[in-house]
Amino acid sequence: MTKLNRREILAGLPLAAAGLSAANQDIPYRPLGSTGAKVSIIGVGGHHIGRPKDEELGIRIIRTALDNGVNFLDNCWDYHDGGSEVRMGKALRDGYRNKAFLMTKIDGRTKDSAAKQIDESLKRLQTDHIDLMQIHEVIRLEDPDRVFSAGGTMEALDEARKAGKIRFIGFTGHKDPLVHLRMLDTAKKHNFHFDSAQMPLNVMDAHFRSFSHQVVPRLVEEKIAVLGMKPMGDGIILKSNTVTPLEFLHYAMSLPTSTVITGMESMEMLNQGLNAARTFKPMSKTEMAALLQKTAAAAEDGKYELFKTTSRFDGTAHNPQWLG
Question: Within 13 Å and on the Cβ side, how many CA atoms surround 190?
Fold first, then answer.
């Protein structure tokens, strides 16, 4: 029998059982707001996991990420008609669930539709609980009202948490910081404290409808975890030819983010993310200002942030039946 080295043996164990810290695996960890949980500075984007035609490649990307100390996994009930969750569920077999901080999202704006989606996600992901469940695509000004109304999403989430199906609750959106702020205001009115909020955070965002300027300071003040996404805008921002992928990722990591979720649909993209996490050193104010100066002209009018300026990324707009 081949003798395994210590790293190979420990790779099969959860971090806590193996006695490893994030530093030992070279991937920094950060607190998830005020929850007490800690997550890797970089997260695996769920939509991209469903893109490879070869399911085994998607599974290998997830498991390789977990073996290398990345614990934050992103997903959503609607990605690839549930295909991303199914694929991730298969990847989390054989003890891998113990290594993961698992997040997924639901679209339902009614109690019944949200409860149904929660149960479907649990089944697809082959788990008895989800660490963080987020309300997906809070992109309309009326979304907060629907979520917190009688018979709305929050009733299903509250019951699911009491039943042990989910641990923490958050929300996501990519359209306008005003909607995020309205969601926070509505939650406060209902005496509810979100555990996390997810939004686009990149060098372009700082110049146009800026989540980093308008939403992040409030999240920090209220000790709500900041989850960054679209650091390269699904590759669209890269077409501006202003900043390198490594700079994009390090910029987002230099913000007060708990994790930066990025697409990893190939081993090359996974290695890019791992390298960014392992080489990360917080950027100085001068370094960040220099990047913002380089991207100012390109960021005008949000022409590289199509998730803000078009309906291209609005899954619930194209499929309103998902809302219930």
Answer: 19
Task: Place 25 in a pLDDT band, splitting at 50, 70 and 90.
Answer: low
Contact present, 203 and 291 (Cβ < 8 Å)? yes
pLDDT, position 235: 86
Distant-in-sequence, close-in-space partners of 290: CB < 8 Å, separation ≥ 6: none
* pLDDT tier at 8, thresholds 50, 70, 90: very low
Structure tokens at 107: 């679209």
Sequence-distant (6+) residues with CB within 8 A of 263 are: 45, 47, 48, 232, 234, 235, 269
* Three-state DSSP class for residue 259: strand
Residue 163 exposed, middle or buried by CB count within 10 Å (0-12, 13-18, 19+) = exposed
Q: Is 112 helix (H, G, I), strand (E, B) or coil?
A: helix
Q: Kindly list the distances between the CA atom of residue 184 and the CA atoms of 52, 193, 195, 212, 232, in Å, as whole numbers in the listed order.
A: 36, 8, 11, 15, 26
pTM above 0.70, yes or no: yes
Contact yes or no for 197/7 (Cβ under 8 A)? no
Q: Which residues contact 8 (CB under 8 A, 6 or more apart)?
A: none
How much is the average pLDDT of 78-89? 97
Runs of H (alpha helix) within the chain: 6-10, 15-18, 46-49, 55-67, 83-91, 111-124, 143-148, 153-162, 177-189, 211-214, 216-221, 245-254, 267-278, 285-299, 306-309, 315-318
DSSP 235-252: GTGGGG-SS-HHHHHHHH
C-alpha closest to that of 33 among 192, 191, 226, 211:
226
Tens-place pLDDT, residues 275-313? 999 999 999 999 999 999 999 999 999 999 999 999 999
